[in-house]
Amino acid sequence: MVETDIALLLLRVVVGGTMIAHGVNHWIGGGKIAGTGRWFESLGLRNGVLQAWFSVVTEIGAGALLIVGLLTPFAAAAVVGVTLVAGLLAHRPNGFFVFKEGYEYVLVLAATVVALGLLGPGRISLDHVVDIEITGWAGGGIALGLGVVATLGLLAVFYRPAGTGEEAH
User: Fold this and answer.
1) What is the pTM of this model?
2) Do the Cβ atoms of 55 and 26 come closer than 8 Å?
């Protein structure tokens, strides 16, 4: 199963590296934390700077865990959470295609990490080294279920779109 283990490593490194780059960009790129916070507030999230830090820590942390293959379904759940929030708030109104700022890209990332939750990280991983095996329906359920629950929790606490009378001040 060497090919499978290498394929899983490739997916983990690419998605993990992408998440780290995205988190670093929210942190020190463009508008930095303040600009990212303002953007989150424009999407209807209260406490934009706090949301920006949540995003940075989640994206960098989940990306690093994916790369090394540690607690893989939980790292996948974090990616599902951030991509679901992005998909719902920033991309859904624009339709499917990424070239129109649609949700195509975040959907592919989310589906990839749910698949990693189902399959596990493979033998080239810290999960394998320390004998953590959460795969199959349990791993996929954690990746998808915890990601959805985290998204719903974040939206319940922080989402206040314009026009609800509860906008951020």
Assistant:
1) 0.94
2) yes
